[in-house]
Amino acid sequence: MNTQIFERVKSTVSVGDYLKVYWEVQGPGPPGAISERSAWAKEMCGSRADAPPALYSPGPALVLEFHTGSKKNNATGFVGTYSFIDKRLFETDGVHMPNTECDYTFSRSGNRPTHGRLYSPRYPSIYPNNIRCSYHFHARPKERVKVVFEEVSLQKGDVSCLRRADIIKVFDGRDANSPAIAMLCNELTGYEVLSTGPALLLQFTANSATAGQGFAATFHFQPPPDSTAADSDRLLKLSFGKAFESLGPEVSATTSSCHQEFSSDGIKHGTLTSPHYPSPYPPNTHCHYEFFGRGKERVRLIFQDFYLYKSADGSVDCTNVDSLQAFIYVDGRLEKVDMFCGVNQPKPIMSNGPKLMLEFRGTQSSRYTRGFKISYSFVENFGINTGRQLKEFPCAFVYNSSESRNGTFASPNYPGSYPRDTECTYFFHGGETEKVHLHFSNFDVEGIEPCEVVTASDYVELSNSMTEDSRFGRFCGQKKEFHVESERNFFKVTFRSNDRLDGTGFKAIYQFLEVTDEYQSPIQDEPSNSTNLYGHTLMLIAVFLMQLRHSLYH
Fold this sequence. Notes:
Blueprint lengths: L1 E9 L7 E5 L19 E3 L10 E2 L6 E5 L9 E8 L10 E2 L7 E4 L7 E5 L11 E8 L5 E10 L12 E6 L8 E5 L2 E8 L4 E8 L7 E9 L9 H8 L1 H5 L3 H5 L6 E4 L5 E5 L11 E8 L5 E10 L15 E8 L2 E8 L8 E2 L4 E8 L8 E9 L8 E2 L6 E5 L5 E5 L12 E7 L4 E12 L13 E5 L9 E3 L1 E3 L2 E4 L4 E7 L8 E10 L15 H24 L1
Parallel strand pairs: 8-10, 17-19, 27-29
Antiparallel strand pairs: 1-4, 1-6, 2-3, 2-5, 7-8, 9-16, 10-15, 11-14, 11-16, 12-13, 12-15, 18-25, 19-24, 20-23, 20-25, 21-22, 21-24, 26-27, 28-36, 29-35, 30-33, 30-34, 30-36, 31-32, 31-35
């Protein structure tokens, strides 16, 4: 297999300078083997930024054909390196299913290995189009299947996976009727999925005209949680691996008596507290709390009490004081997402996947330091408590006017920061003579307009159809309340976050209106406690002001 790595490419398209790449070549031959009638795989021009970092042939041959135009220019051409790679390095460690192009089975039976690798067709070269590959995993009873996508490179950009022709879907079971726990598209690294049972299905579909490099992944059949092979050290190694060790010897040793692990195999929700709570925690306390979910579960933490030692100088810096830090798993490593200190109660926290870790350092303490009390839960609804969740997608909710003509919806984990690497879609379906009215009362989505990938922006995308809608487009940043209205009885809201920064997200009111109706304040069906009543009152006031402005404007 050939690879050609381009270190510098510069040509001028306007005068016809370009480089053609051929790799459907039947062995070495004379220069005449390539002609004007030969089909090329890729054509490149422009600068280094326009060229891929590397080219890999799908077979044993690759031909580069360089063309220059008649006009002189200052282009310097290209320079690169090449090497021959053993094709067997990219073979999938499964059993190819007869009479299929790219379907494989991975079984735990017999002498089959407990772990291995899998690739998209032709990887690391570009995959063919118009294909569908299925990878079936069958573990032993009580075992689980873990798949880690080391690299996914389908298309460039940050477009919603619902609008991608090339996509990877992971189902938590034997077939596509099982709940979807992951949808992957675009480009990402270090993404991990863990089945809830002994079966997992990975389905790769490629229908676009611009194929990417594909994916490289590893799989592992994990032992039952109650087996001797799954003790705490084993579980830690399988889940956090070297990323956990990167925190340093003091953390990886985890010799503290207050180290605790919480697995969704036991209970789905519970409470954790600092040592001796509600009495003061002892000086020089160092604790770790690790959470291990499965499937599409996310770890959600809600703080019920928080009171750590606070220095007398009133400093807001948490670096050298008693603190609680939260870590998530990003691109194969642990990354700190938040740090809390003092006496201000933190907002809810949600992981970006099935794992999360807390580290508590309490060096000072005093008779007034109660510590903290946290309610934890393993949730599959991403903290979204309205609408009807669809099992066909990891995070999708339907709002039908036949079920409720008004209500609220919010970003994942609202009012806490939304999780990273998350895409959620909200579908609104009205009657034949209805339209959809949305009023966003709070909006804080990290990003810079026009909310595109070049600015590494998270975004909310609004549309009258399943595809992109130029009338609305994307929204990001911090915005005052605003409202939008659909053109017909269907509306779609897509929320997408990357692995960079985050915000508190959004909360909105929806209402289905007759086409001739004016927008009116909806009646909420939320719990009638004092906190919700206060928030509901503020929301009604905001809607009234919006209606007043709306009537004055018209």
